[in-house]
Design brief:
14 strands, globular, GMP Synthetase, Chain A, domain 3, 4-stranded mixed beta sheet, 433 residues
Length: 433
């Protein structure tokens, strides 16, 4: 008993150091933010516009889709603030919200084009210093105003944020883009000879607005549906025909990933289109899956589709007599996805010819990407970082002016391709008429 009284003070003392949940806030007092759009308008005293996509409480309580559909609205609500800094704009957005802004569940940060051109320092500083923001937030660049993206309605998912995340996850598998978390952007910004990049998210016109035949066919369908509705009305069933016609209305715009935003330092330098983005992914060794179309060597008018299944890229810096160059070796693998001709391609000779054609197509894409990067003076592949690791002395002499040097750097690209499989057919089906 005496021993227990001796140990009791030591057992109770740690309890004095426990603070408990001193900063707790009930969930019904939080405005949970899922996405942030940051726009910048130069020349204004308060240039920053911050838009928050906040989860609507009824959507959470009612199970998301059901609640949104029941009230006929989106599961998120937008709140906007304007300020001289990002923090001030965020605070002003909170003036319109009846709850405390909670950023720990934020997943996406959209940057308007002017914001990206103004510089990433203000963005990364805000994310790092805010204790609720996570370094796994995905960063994207939006040509024009980022606010317009969050104002769009969802198509398949519960909200616009889920639509964006779904597009990015899908792009990892189809090699349409290379999604970047905040910590990856910070790593590139702090690495000499390595520039950051981000996917480009934009609103594109709906297909019916691009192809006139689609719009004309749509009008004809609506006219026929309207005529059927009028006949039904005379016979007692006009309401169904009217609803059918309105259901065919196509959206004006669609959310889509469109290339890559390339930065020089922390400022936006320009954009790579879809083909140049794929060439960049080849150089970076990040190509996972893509369809590449080549001409049939035996029937030039027909096309052959190759499904890329992987690649390995090796970049070797070379310094000779003070001149710096790089040798890039790319090994691509793929499967025969489809062909338009009746040529039997499952022979060693034909496969060898397809390998050469595929290697030529890959090399053409990488050259386009390299030319665009050198034109912009942005090294998003990291040639400078590779040189710094391999020959620090050579890079140190030119590191301060690497963007200018990179524009004139010679890069030799060598591509080998290997088509491993022909799918479930060894030869095309012969059609006998």
């Amino acid at each position: 008993m005496g021993r227990l009284r001796f140990l009791l003070p030591f057992l109770l003392f740690p309890l004095l150091l426990l603070s408990g949940c001193w900063s707790r806030v009930e969930i019904n007092k939080l405005a949970i933010v899922k996405a942030i759009a940051i726009d910048y308008l130069p020349g204004r005293r308060a240039p920053y516009i911050v838009t928050l996509a906040v989860i609507r409480p009824a959507a959470v309580a009612g199970g998301g889709d059901a609640a949104a559909g029941g009230e006929g609205g989106s599961p998120t609500r937008l709140f906007t603030g304007v300020g001289a800094t990002i923090d001030l704009a965020l605070a002003r957005a909170g003036f319109n919200i009846s709850r405390r802004i909670f950023l720990s569940h934020n997943e996406v940060v959209l940057l308007g084009e002017e914001t990206a051109r103004h510089g990433l320092h203000h963005i990364t500083d805000f994310i790092i210093r805010n204790p609720e923001m996570r370094l796994t937030n995905l960063l994207l660049v939006v040509p024009g105003m980022a606010h317009e993206i969050l104002a769009q309605g969802e198509r398949l998912e519960a909200g616009i944020t889920d639509e964006i995340i779904g597009l990015l996850e899908q792009s990892r598998e189809t090699s349409e883009a290379h999604p970047q978390e905040t910590f990856l952007v910070l790593r590139r910004l702090s690495t000499p000879g390595f520039d950051p990049h981000m996917p480009v998210l934009k609103l594109g016109p709906h297909l019916s607005r691009v192809i006139p035949e689609f719009e004309r066919e749509k009008r004809e369908l609506q006219e026929r549906a309207g005529g059927s509705g009028q006949e039904g009305k005379n016979g007692g069933g006009g309401q169904g025909g009217g609803e059918s016609g309105s259901a065919e209305a196509a959206p004006q715009t669609e959310l889509t990933l469109a290339g890559t935003a390339a930065f020089c330092g922390d400022r936006l330098a320009g954009y790579l289109n879809e083909i140049e983005t794929r060439g960049f992914l080849w150089l970076a060794g990040e190509m996972r899956a893509a369809i590449i179309t080549i001409s049939d060597p035996q029937a030039p008018g027909e096309k052959i589709n190759i499904l890329i299944t992987g690649n390995i890229t090796k970049i070797k810096p070379m310094v000779k007599e003070g001149r710096i160059s790089f040798r890039v070796e790319i090994a691509a693998e793929g499967d025969l996805a489809s062909q338009g001709s009746h040529t039997n391609l499952a022979t060693p000779e034909k496969i060898s010819g397809l390998n050469s054609a595929l290697a030529g197509a890959v090399k053409a894409e990488t050259k386009k990407a390299l030319a665009k990067m050198q034109e912009l003076g942005t090294d998003i592949v990291g040639f400078g970082a590779i040189l710094n690791r391999g020959n620090h002395k050579a890079f140190k002499a030119i590191g301060d002016r690497w963007p200018e040097v990179f524009r004139e750097i010679k890069v030799d690209i060598h591509v080998t391709a290997n088509i491993r499989r022909t799918g479930q057919l060894s030869r095309p089906v012969r059609i006998i008429r």
